[in-house]
Specification:
mainly beta, Lipocalin, nine-stranded antiparallel sheet, 1 helix, globular
Length: 161
Amino acid sequence: MTAARRQRIASWCIVAWALCAAAPAWADGFGWLAPWYGSYVFDGAAGHTVGGSPIAYHYSLMLRRAPAGPTCALHLEGYQQDEMLRCTVHGDRNVLAVAFASYANGALANAYGVRVFQPDALLFRLTRPGSAESAGVMTAWLALHPDGVAETGAFFRRNGG
């Protein structure tokens, strides 16, 4: 075998290896989502009710990779709420738009029969200032906007994988 042939074979092997190594990132069409996978939390407060009860919020966003595509769940806890939402996501490596899909039971109305969100309504948008691997995210509230909280700010924080 000539040196040139060995070099060509080695080059093809490197290309094949690179394609195989990259496949998990782009094969499912959601490679852009990789830096977003994990859990994010928002803890906020909006003062007290007239009776003195605290108005507090705890939101947990969970983004996971799954064989059929990414899964997105949003748990809303706090003042007069305890709900689990299924959501969809759109965006790129630096911007993630979270949209309402349904409640955890698949219904479009909450436990009281009220349709708080329309299907595909954008709940909020997360933006990474700077690098896609940056830990900090900025939130822009859209259809989901907790009372007493500014429209934009550094509200959600990464809570691990």
